[in-house]
């Protein structure tokens, strides 16, 4: 319960980041884009079809920049003051923490263990926390790793709290050697902790290669004769906190779950796993708030739970309408500068409207909202309205919405009415938890229309827009240091596959009932709708691909692409301003010119390839030819067993932390690299043809007396943008373009040049 005294300082405050200078720059670029379009219209009759194609592409770019300008118009974020929480709140609310994993090979259990350890050791009363790990792969190795982690955390959590350790994921904490100190007790404890962690890593690694330990322990009997896609529900209470007083030596609950899967049942991938987590946690602990993180996204800030609670418990604003608190998605082991910049400007912009978009990890949810409540269902004091009570609390409605489990229905009623959850023995609730994990449990219920929403592999965006459509707001907190840090696939096939899934799921949202294109009477602000439309506009890859080919086409056909005379200054000013603007955005966050250039190049490669193939996936789905699957992105496995002494470093703000150098782009024979190779080869062919004509002194501009300087510069710019592919032509091994990819792209290039 929060203290209602108005004399106390607020738990959080809204920080505005409005900048009139940035608004002027955004508007200037927008005016230049519209000026270019107007010039195209005035001279459309004087030019050929290529002028119309350029106009359509530039119209798309102008529309996108208009949306971006609207989104960035009033950036904001919430700043929490967790140090004020104790004097304002006498009884902190409970929080359930969700960690989903699906494949012990692509998501190594030791990474999951580190994420769980960081969550169990946060600065929050242990009797108010519970951690649930959903294993969609039904792996005994994952369960074994969690059992070993539950032993280690009993010494790790007290150590972190005693010495106020900031990084509470051991594999990151022990990357740094022990600093010489006069505190001999700390040195002794540090060395002991390092030894115990190395033992934990060794046990997990040894168990990976030897499965005989399964037969020696009856606790693993449930995993016998199981397959990842064919097994019964498994619920295991790995550790139960029976103390219940919040002592610093206590450890929160830790529960392992794996829902039933059968080959002939639709299980909805990660979304179905999240809904199973929602049901099981509701039965066992029923905390009013829930944190979900990816299995590789560890808590980098010990006070992260307290920071989120500052927003939910703030009395100076109507916290009843805040559905979730989203933290940025930051990474420590890959090249993600573009994502950091994107979050800094775009996410803050969206946060200044109706709130940030849920991004699938690092997010605190409100249980009542996930159970389907709208903002209009609450009275001013946060209690259910009479209309909502009749809709949600009638017996028939509860069974129809949430299923036939009496225990679950009772927990839902308690959650909707904000009743405190009495202490229960988790072991006594295992059978009820198994019941709500059966394949048929969701049949003829509202699951998928409440909880995490189905109908898209991008469950985060789909669920987020569903929440905002019901009138809820959300909050964005961007602390320094980052609250969560995770790993990303290396830039290459894995990264493109992950982005392809994101893009495919986003396009799916455009065609389902959550689409921002429909339902204009819903309770979502117009600019928030534009923000979702921008996120979902993966189809922009088509005009980007076409525009990259236009300079080459014009050089090969002696035709004009860009304005002539003084009006060429529109293009030059536009490109120059955009480059300087994005460069400034990078440098203001501590990145170098080199990191800006590399990021622009690699991001364009990933985006173009993933978006193109996501459009292909959607077309095949709409035609009924194939279904869209959920591919788990491979997480980076530390190279050594002795504490993760890897070479990876935080990427944000440090050039030497960049894992990938320009030209060290890893290729394989995947078809994902064909578009980038094709674009690069076409522009090289056009430049070569132009040089041959120039040497023969027979080249003349098709536009009537002008030079081809602008089109030549355009080709050179495209080649520089796809520079890793140019390097790949002269490399061998994993950094060279494979012959199969090169031959396919070359064939397409020949067709383009000839026809």
Tell me what you see in this structure:
This protein has 755 residues and is of the alpha/beta class. The protein is 47% helix and 8% strand. The strands form three sheets. Strands 5-6-4-3-7-11-9-12 form an eight-stranded mixed beta sheet, sandwiched between helices. The protein has a three-stranded mixed beta sheet with strand order 8-13-10. Strand 3, helix 4 and strand 4 form a beta-alpha-beta unit. The radius of gyration is 28 Å and the shape is globular. 45% of the residues are buried. About 4% of the residues have low confidence.
At the fourth level of CATH, the homologous superfamily of the largest domain is Spore Coat Polysaccharide Biosynthesis Protein SpsA, Chain A
Beginning-to-end CA distance, first to last residue: 73 Å
Strand order of the largest sheet: 5-6-4-3-7-11-9-12
**Strand content bin:** 5-15%
Low-pLDDT segments: 638-662, 699-706
| Protein structure class | alpha/beta
Rounded to an integer, what's the Rg over CA atoms? 28 Å
Q: What number of structural domains do the residues give? A: 2
Shape: globular
Helical content stands at 40-55%
Task: Say how many strands there are.
Answer: 13
Q: Regarding CATH, which class of the largest domain?
A: Alpha Beta
Number of helices: 25
**What is the second-level CATH architecture of the largest domain?**
Alpha-Beta Complex
Q: Which fold name fills CATH's third level, the topology of the largest domain? A: Spore Coat Polysaccharide Biosynthesis Protein SpsA, Chain A
What's the mean pLDDT score?
84
Subcellular location: Golgi apparatus membrane
Keywords: Cell wall biogenesis/degradation, Glycosyltransferase, Golgi apparatus, Membrane, Transferase, Transmembrane, Transmembrane helix
Pfam family, one: Cellulose_synt
Protein name: Cellulose synthase-like B6
């Amino acid at each position: 319960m929060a203290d209602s005294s108005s004399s106390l300082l607020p738990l959080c405050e809204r920080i505005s980041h409005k900048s009139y200078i940035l608004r002027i720059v955004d508007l200037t670029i927008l005016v230049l884009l519209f000026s270019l379009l107007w010039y195209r219209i005035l001279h459309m009759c004087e030019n050929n079809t290529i002028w119309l194609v350029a106009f359509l592409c530039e119209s798309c770019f102008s529309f996108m920049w208009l949306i971006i300008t609207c989104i960035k118009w009033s950036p904001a974020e919430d700043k929490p003051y967790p140090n004020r929480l104790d004097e304002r709140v006498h009884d902190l609310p409970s929080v359930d923490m969700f960690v989903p994993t699906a494949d012990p090979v692509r998501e190594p259990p030791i990474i999951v263990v580190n994420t769980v350890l960081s969550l169990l050791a946060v600065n929050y009363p242990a009797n108010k926390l519970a951690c649930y790990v959903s294993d969609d792969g039904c792996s005994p190795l994952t369960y074994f790793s969690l059992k070993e982690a539950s032993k280690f955390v009993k010494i790790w959590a007290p150590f972190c709290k005693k010495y106020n350790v900031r990084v509470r994921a051991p594999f990151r904490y022990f990357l740094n050697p022990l600093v010489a100190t006069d505190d001999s007790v700390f040195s002794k404890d540090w060395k002991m902790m390092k030894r115990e962690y190395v033992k934990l890593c060794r046990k997990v690694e040894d168990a990976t290669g030897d499965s005989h330990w399964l037969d020696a322990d009856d606790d693993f009997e449930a995993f016998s004769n199981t397959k990842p896609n064919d097994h019964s529900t498994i619920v295991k209470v790995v550790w139960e906190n029976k103390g219940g007083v919040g002592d610093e030596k206590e450890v929160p609950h830790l529960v392992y779950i794996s829902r039933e899967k059968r080959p002939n049942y639709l299980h909805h991938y990660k979304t179905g796993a999240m809904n199973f987590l929602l049901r099981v946690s509701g039965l066992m602990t029923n905390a009013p708030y829930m944190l979900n993180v990816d299995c590789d996204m560890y808590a980098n800030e010990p006070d992260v739970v307290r920071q989120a609670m500052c927003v939910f418990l703030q009395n100076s604003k109507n916290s009843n309408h805040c559905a979730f608190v989203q933290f940025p998605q930051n990474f420590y082991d890959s090249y993600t500068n573009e994502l950091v910049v994107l979050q800094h400007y775009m996410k803050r912009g969206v946060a200044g409207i109706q709130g940030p978009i849920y991004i699938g990890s690092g997010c605190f949810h409100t249980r009542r909202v996930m159970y389907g409540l709208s903002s209009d269902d609450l009275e001013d004091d946060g209690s259910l309205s009479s209309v909502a009570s009749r809709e949600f609390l009638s017996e028939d409605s509860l069974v129809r919405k949430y299923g036939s489990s009496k225990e679950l229905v009772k927990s839902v009623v308690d959650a909707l009415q904000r009743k405190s959850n009495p202490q229960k023995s988790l072991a006594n609730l295992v059978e009820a938890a198994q019941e709500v994990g059966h394949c048929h449990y969701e049949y003829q219920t509202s699951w998928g229309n409440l909880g995490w929403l189905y109908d898209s592999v991008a469950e985060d965006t789909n669920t987020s827009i569903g929440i905002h459509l019901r009138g809820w707001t959300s909050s964005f907190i961007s602390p320094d240091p980052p609250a969560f840090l995770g790993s990303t696939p290396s830039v290459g096939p894995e990264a493109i596959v992950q982005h392809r899934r994101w893009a495919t799921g986003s396009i799916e949202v455009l065609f389902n009932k959550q689409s921002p294109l429909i339902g204009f009477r819903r309770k979502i602000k117009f600019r928030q709708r534009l923000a979702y439309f921008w996120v979902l506009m993966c189809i922009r890859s088509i005009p980007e691909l076409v525009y990259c080919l236009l300079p080459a086409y014009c050089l090969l056909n002696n035709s004009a692409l860009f304005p002539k005379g003084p009006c060429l200054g529109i293009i030059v000013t536009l490109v120059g301003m955009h480059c300087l603007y994005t460069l400034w955005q990078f440098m203001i966050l501590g990145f170098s010119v080199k990191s800006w250039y590399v990021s622009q190049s690699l991001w364009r490669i990933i985006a173009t390839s993933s978006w193109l193939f996501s459009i292909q996936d959607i077309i095949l789905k709409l035609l009924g030819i194939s279904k869209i699957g959920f591919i788990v992105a491979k997480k980076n496995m530390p190279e050594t067993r002795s504490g993760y002494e890897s070479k990876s470093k935080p990427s944000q703000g440090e050039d030497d932390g960049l894992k990938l150098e320009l030209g060290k782009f890893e290729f394989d024979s995947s078809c994902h690299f064909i578009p980038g190779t094709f674009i690069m080869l076409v522009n090289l062919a056009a430049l070569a043809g132009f040089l041959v004509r120039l040497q023969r002194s027979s080249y003349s501009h098709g536009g009537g007396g002008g030079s081809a300087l602008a089109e030549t510069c355009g080709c050179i710019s495209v080649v520089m943008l796809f520079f890793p592919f140019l390097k790949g032509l002269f490399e061998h091994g994993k950094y060279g373009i494979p012959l199969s990819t090169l031959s396919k792209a070359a064939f397409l290039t020949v067709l383009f040049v000839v026809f």
